[in-house]
Design a protein that fits this description.
This protein has 428 residues and is an alpha/beta fold. The chain has 17 helices and 14 strands. It folds into 3 domains: 165 residues, 3-Layer(aba) Sandwich (Rossmann fold); 122 residues, Rossmann fold (3-Layer(aba) Sandwich), CATH 3.40.50.1980; 100 residues, 3-Layer(aba) Sandwich (Rossmann fold), CATH 3.40.50. The strands form 3 sheets. Strands 1-12-11-10-13-14 form a 6-stranded parallel sheet, with helices on both faces. Helix 10 runs antiparallel to helix 11, helix 10 crosses helix 12 and helix 11 packs parallel to helix 17. The two termini are 32 Å apart. The chain binds iron/sulfur cluster (SF4).
Amino acid sequence: MTDVHSINLPYGCRDVPILKERGQREVFCGLTGIIWLHRKMQDAFFLVVGSRTCAHLLQSAAGVMIFAEPRFATAILEETDLAGLADAQEELDRVVAELLDRRPDIRQLFLVGSCPSEVIKLDLQRAAERLSQTHAPSVRILNFSGSGIETTFTQGEDACLASMVPVLPDTQKRNLLLVGALPDIVEEQAIRLLSDMGIESIEVLPASHTDMSVSVGVNTVFALTQPFLGDTFSALTQRGARHIPAPFPFGERGTTAWLRAVADEFSVADDIFDRVTKAPRARARKAISRAAEALNGKSVFFFPDSQLEIPLARFLTTECGMTAIEVGTPFLHKGLVGSDLDLMQTGPVFSEGQDVDRQIDRCRQAMPDLIVCGLGLANPLEAEGFATKWAIELVFTPVHFYEQAGDLTGLFSRPLRRAERIRSLAAE
Ligand code: SF4
């Protein structure tokens, strides 16, 4: 389908000018990441040190968990803490001791900073170090920030993984680290494909349990599965590990290019690579072409939100026949998304950061067929008659690698089909 749009347009967007914006932004905070991280890391607990607003955000985002014994909670900073009248560090020691006493299954405790804890400059790093001395070795205590001050919702995962890197055991062995929290079934598919190519010593960050082997050293190579892991990338590089640059594994071509980059690193022969990937590639191509009928020839406009925007724009333009008008992203890290930029045709505006009113004006003028944006913008834009896709769904839904390529395509085609139906009903 790409060929429809490939007439005389040069490829490669790595060096195109970037529109940098520094105005008002519409994004969720990094606490959101706890919702998928606590499901992934099954012996971890996330203790947010924040306000009632933080507690409400988590509770409503993870509503079903109120019936179970959750693995996250909020230690609420009261007015006396905020006014500096109480010793918040002492309070934290007490809360952590009670929690660990009641929940002996916890092996890893994250103290998670929030806007209020940052505003009163509560030093959670010092708290984590102090509490580690009390509760190690049975519990590892780390800290990271999920604050919404100048951050986006996917940065919570990045901050969490980056906080784990310095305490990973050192190794001299040549291992492959897959970095990024994927649903278990998707992670298993990726590991199976790589194992079938003969690649051994595959480890995953984050692991589902603290005692699973995850180590890092100068012979470690790592492949990111999520494009929002800039701090984790830096932390791993500082430990001597080497990044394998690749497009992200979205769609058939993205997945093949990602696997190819890893396979090349481990000198996998072409015939082995083709044998392992042939059948799932064919399934992915078929699933995409079925679901992409509604997308072919349509335009898309990305507001900055999840940091998945550039790889997804690459997928929609090179595999689904769409045209990208603007690809907005909160942060543009060419070390991470450069390979996806290389595969895109020039034409779209790439913007970094946000000045939401100006961006809405550009969007209205462009009249895209589909807008990918945050929850806060979606409803007003729908009311204006635009078809929208919530960016956050792309993080909560399994969308990586071959077997999910059809579902990924469907996430974008459904709003267009729905808009089409609404228009035909209105016309009747
Ligand atoms: S961390 Fe900040 S933005 Fe997030 S819920 Fe708490 S107060 Fe709100």
